[in-house]
Design the sequence.
């Protein structure tokens, strides 16, 4: 049974209403093609998580897909605060999502604990702050304070996370799902491996032999992967190291569009609902911004000396 | 004795103030903007062995253009080590290897607590802010926190609406009580009017130096707590010629730093 399929099929088969999703990638390799397909298929009541969320999560919230967010941060970075997120929390538009607040130490560690089959993990952040005073849907399960059974010192424990589905975009994968990534990782490796199953979208599908020429790059093994989608330009407007740069023009476009509910709706109508898939999205991008602009995003090239695993 | 420049903009001075707090050999966790500029000025002047890392995974990155986010593509080629959040926030930060961290906040109080979560009530906020991100662990675990803030009675507060990142919490002994590592905490609060340091005994921020276009009175008036003043309070040392040369000729020839004037750092 081939795992290679379209994004439409991958999302349809693996993401249901109410699913708990890890959606990897911060600036580096956000799986925007998958995010758009989730919105296109009008998935609802999702619990979503990732450290340092940005425009992709803002879009999911604005589109009404999200019920719960295990969060550390959500902002448009250079472009300021995330408008849809703010409207949801401040005004209940489209509805107020529930937020469980952690930080960029505890959340990656919770994903790592999940990936390693641990029930919980000790962390040294959040102490002495209001992050311990606010609890949402996880209630008392958000964290526990204990005295270390070894030396009696106070220890903060946070629970392991095991999302239903991990969705990541990487540079290359083989048809069985061995996924290879290079460059800044964020929490992709641990988030994907914490998940019960993984949707891998990649810039290119390569053969198993190519994977075998540098196995250290593999971050998710094939047996965890439910779907492999070959999706060039799949992280745009984020970047994929070695393939294309961040699209700052598009970032500014989203910031302006999402300033108002109407503008956000028009943005979705144009870039999500108005195109069937990422291929049509890319086509529309070229039509709107020109081929030159599209080409200008393409990464330069440099050779790293080849490595040999031979003995 | 270095010579000084008198023709500079406030953000340049603030970057220099940040640079001066970095010691040679320090490992520094940086975000974009001021932190990176300050760390780079330090690296090019008195702290050539200082090393930078960004929370998303890069260590000793050598960007050929200014990084516009902590995950920026320019941080990849040439870095010494690249991992992810667990490597930087866990292996480096939590294990205690990071000397200096820069933070900025929507609200900062007299104990150096920082709020980036909500303005107003958490359950019904006036303003929902981004959230902690890496700020809480950085404030909890680095040896010296350098805080960058706008100096006005809105941004500074007697007590923040929400403690996202711990400074000295509510006074002496608080960090220790909560089990935060010994020898960690806020070291300096650098604003567009002054440099504040933190009193060893009371853990409150006090006025160490005021910038050239300000004064002790002006700073005290614009600070919403009973601001103590150092016995040796003085005018902030202006940028040294070498610091400015590095900034204007090497790091930022397009003077992107001017953006900060537009954000109120005047």
Sequence:
């Amino acid at each position: 049974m081939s795992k290679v399929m379209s994004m439409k099929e991958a999302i349809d088969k693996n993401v249901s209403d109410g699913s708990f999703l890890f959606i990897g990638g911060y600036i580096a390799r956000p799986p925007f093609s998958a995010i758009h397909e989730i919105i296109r298929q009008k998935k609802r009541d999702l619990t979503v998580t990732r450290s340092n969320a940005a425009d992709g999560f803002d879009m999911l919230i604005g589109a009404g897909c999200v019920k719960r967010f295990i969060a550390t941060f959500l902002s448009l970075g250079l472009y300021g605060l995330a408008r849809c997120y703010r409207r949801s929390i401040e005004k209940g538009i489209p509805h107020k999502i529930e937020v469980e607040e952690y930080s960029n130490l505890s959340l990656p560690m919770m994903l790592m604990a999940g990936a390693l089959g641990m029930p919980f993990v000790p962390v040294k952040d959040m102490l002495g702050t209001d992050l311990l005073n606010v609890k949402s849907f996880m209630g008392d399960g958000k964290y526990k304070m204990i005295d270390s059974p070894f030396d009696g010192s106070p220890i903060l424990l946070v629970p392991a996370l095991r999302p239903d589905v991990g969705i990541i975009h990487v540079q290359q994968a083989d048809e069985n799902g061995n996924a290879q990534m290079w460059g800044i990782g964020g929490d992709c490796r641990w988030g994907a491996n914490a998940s019960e199953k993984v949707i891998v979208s990649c810039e290119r599908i390569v053969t198993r032999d190519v994977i075998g020429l540098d196995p250290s790059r593999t971050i998710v093994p094939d047996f965890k992967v439910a779907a492999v989608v070959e999706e060039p330009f799949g992280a745009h407007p984020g970047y994929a190291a070695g393939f294309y740069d961040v699209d700052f023009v598009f970032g500014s476009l989203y910031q302006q569009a999402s300033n108002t509910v109407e503008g956000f709706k028009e943005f979705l109508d144009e870039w999500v609902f108005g195109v069937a898939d990422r291929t049509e999205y890319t086509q529309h991008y070229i039509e709107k911004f020109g081929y030159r602009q599209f080409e200008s995003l393409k990464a330069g090239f440099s050779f790293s000396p080849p490595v040999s695993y031979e003995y | 004795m270095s010579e000084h420049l008198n023709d500079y903009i406030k953000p340049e001075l603030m970057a220099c103030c940040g640079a001066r707090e970095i010691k040679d050999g320090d490992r520094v966790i940086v975000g974009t903007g001021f932190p990176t500029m300050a760390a780079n000025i330090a690296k090019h002047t008195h702290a050539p062995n200082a090393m930078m890392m960004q929370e998303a995974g890069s260590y000793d990155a050598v960007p050929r253009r200014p990084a516009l986010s902590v995950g920026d593509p320019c941080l990849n080629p040439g870095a010494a080590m690249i991992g992810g959040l667990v490597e930087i926030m866990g292996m480096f930060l939590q294990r205690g290897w990071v000397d200096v961290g820069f933070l900025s906040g929507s609200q900062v109080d007299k104990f150096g607590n920082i709020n980036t979560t909500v303005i107003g009530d958490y359950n019904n906020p006036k303003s929902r802010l981004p959230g902690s991100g890496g700020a809480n662990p950085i404030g909890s675990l680095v040896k010296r926190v350098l805080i960058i803030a706008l100096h006005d009675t809105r941004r500074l507060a007697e007590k923040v609406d929400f403690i996202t990142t711990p400074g000295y919490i509510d006074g002496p002994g608080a960090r220790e009580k909560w089990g935060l590592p010994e020898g960690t905490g806020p070291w300096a609060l650098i604003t567009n009017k002054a440099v504040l340091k933190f009193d060893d005994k009371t853990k409150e921020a006090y006025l160490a130096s005021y910038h050239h276009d300000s004064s002790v009175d002006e700073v005290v008036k614009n600070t919403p707590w009973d601001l103590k003043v150092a016995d040796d309070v003085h005018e902030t040392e202006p940028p040294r010629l070498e610091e400015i040369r590095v900034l204007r000729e090497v790091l930022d020839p397009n003077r992107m730093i001017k953006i900060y004037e537009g954000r109120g750092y005047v």
